[in-house]
Design a protein that fits this description.
The chain is α/β, with parallel strands linked by helices and 303 residues long. It is built from 11 helices and 13 strands. It has 3 domains: 78 residues, Orthogonal Bundle (Arc Repressor Mutant, subunit A), CATH 1.10.10; 99 residues, Periplasmic binding protein-like II (D-Maltodextrin-Binding Protein, domain 2, 3-Layer(aba) Sandwich); 99 residues, D-Maltodextrin-Binding Protein, domain 2 (3-Layer(aba) Sandwich), CATH 3.40.190.10. Helix 1 packs across helix 4. The protein is elongated, with a radius of gyration of 24 Å.
Length: 303
Amino acid sequence: MDFTALRYFLETADSQSIRQASDRLHVAPSAVSRKIAKLEHDLKSKLFERRTTGMRLTAAGIILAEQLRSTVRNLDRVRWQIAELEGLKRGEVSIHCIEGVVENWLPRHIARFKMIYPEINFRIAVMSTDRIIEALMAGDSDIGIVFFTSERPEIRVTSSQAEALNLIANPGHPLAHRRQVSLAEITQHTLVMPNASFGVRRIVDRHFSVAKLVARDILETNSIQLTRSLVRHGVGCTLLPHLSVERDLAAGLLTSVKLKDANMLATGIQVCTHRQHNLSAAAEAFLNTITPKPTAGSLGASD
């Protein structure tokens, strides 16, 4: 099959425009159009619907585009693996992670790793636990960092770091200076929480359900950062682990109160990979740096 035609096709599929594809490829629009026409002839199937608004993939085109993107990802991995034969002088690590680790936990690990391997590149995307698992399943990510999530046979949890949830509030909040607080008391105040795509929210919802508790008022967001900001401004309180609010706690902008139900409301970080996807040498090396060495009584990797 004509690899140039495949490249022209994928660029057109991504840009939805022959002219934009030609600009990115630095060739004439007629050359892109001819290659696509030849590809359609070879495959005996129409790949695009030509519309005034641009090029729209047909069902056959969608199948081809998805397969090509997977092939390109695999070729990139091969390219990095060949380069890594020189001894981790080059390479790339793709990480999809929850918002709660981006302030301190993940940057701290990357900074330490880059001191040893300065030429290794990182590609990092911040999203919810559900979307991180989807990225691992699709092969778009080497390493996923999530709050505790439900088990899946395809996903391997390489390490788990448990941490209790705490009430997080503005220092002026009525519950801010308590030594301990119960879930029942928290439900009487406005609760600011990330939505159900976040693992921490599902943990809270599950235990509210078990305890037959209903929050009087929940303000829901799709961002841990916005959750923290709303709580800092006194809109309400929230339930989060310390690692999500370390900087605000240190600055005195937020305060943390232990829960009487702390044993029920445990969460933490899980570092995950796909069981069937081979990691590059760079990704494997970084995974080793963020996987704590098991000690007696510790919560180690699960297989």
